[in-house]
Automatic annotation (TrEMBL):
Residues 7-236 form the ABC transporter domain. Belongs to the ABC transporter superfamily. Keywords: ATP-binding, Nucleotide-binding, Transport. It comes from the Bacteria. InterPro entries: AAA+_ATPase (IPR003593), ABC_transporter-like_ATP-bd (IPR003439), P-loop_NTPase (IPR027417). The keyword Kinase does not apply. It comes from Thioflexithrix psekupsensis. This is ABC transporter ATP-binding protein. GO terms for molecular function: ATP binding; ATP hydrolysis activity.
Amino acid sequence: MDELPLISAVELSRFYGHFCAVDALSFEVKRGQVVGFLGTNGAGKTTTMQMLTGNLAPTSGQIRLAGFDLLDSPLAAKSQLGYLPEHPPLYPECRVDEYLRFCARLHGLSKTETHQAVDEVLNTCGLTGVYRRLIANLSKGYQQRVGIAQAIVHSPSVVVLDEPTVGLDPVQSHSVRELIQKLGQQRAVIVSTHLLNEVQSICTHVQILQAGRCVLQGALRDLLHQPVTTLTLGLHHAPSLARLKILPNVQQVESITPNKWRLHCSPGQLPTDAIVQAAAAERWGLFELTPEYRTLEQLFIELTQLS
Ligand SMILES: Nc1ncnc2c1ncn2[C@@H]1O[C@H](COP(=O)(O)OP(=O)(O)OP(=O)(O)O)[C@@H](O)[C@H]1O
């Protein structure tokens, strides 16, 4: 049976005065999905995340977290929510375990539950080696892990992370991304970021906002693996351009380097067999024949420049 969404936003809008920052946005996130929130500056990502986390009232629309309406049942809805703001609310003078115990108690966990929850979260977030350190003395990467740990110490089913890898070095970013992927296995996760490669490496789904509206949403797998119409061809002993142009279903030939071409083909009819046969028969020295999938960057630029 199809599981109910853990995050559901219906016709969500937010006006600042007469200016519409978020315009009738609807989407759902299910358990096991990590959704990358993308958009150019001012697209409405922060406004949407603030509404989802109960920090900003929508002008209209409905938000449900794990089935609880955020407006009608705010306590029940928020008990299901973990939030890492762009600037994590850390107390630098606290030790890691003290701070996490404090956060767990704020979420209403009993002393016994707190003890177990902190142990678990230290383990999940790779903090067992630093649990007695002062937060102020941790590296930025470890501080970010503590920020994620405070967001999940009460075992929420929904996690919202605002630019979680900003300011981290590549090694720290990598380990925080691995952690987010792990979180996504059991929860519904939304990650806002400007890093498209980050979305490609950790997200299952993407949502692109432009001027407050959603211009694209869906599973990354489906969006990036649509029927391919372009082939990259590498030949050591290339024939004439005219010969390449008369390959079946080839509409246009573009030169990339002296030995490489991009063949634009009719949709759904890639002439790979014909190329391999011709290359063998006419000794073209074929060294590359690759279908070109669209990258998220191409898709993002197409969509955000169109609107
Ligand atoms: N408090 C406010 N008062 C008036 N306008 C606002 C307010 N907050 C945001 N805006 C406007 O709403 C629009 C959306 O802003 P928002 O911060 O949600 O975008 P964003 O996608 O998060 O951008 P960025 O990537 O730059 O953080 C912008 O045009 C912004 O100037």
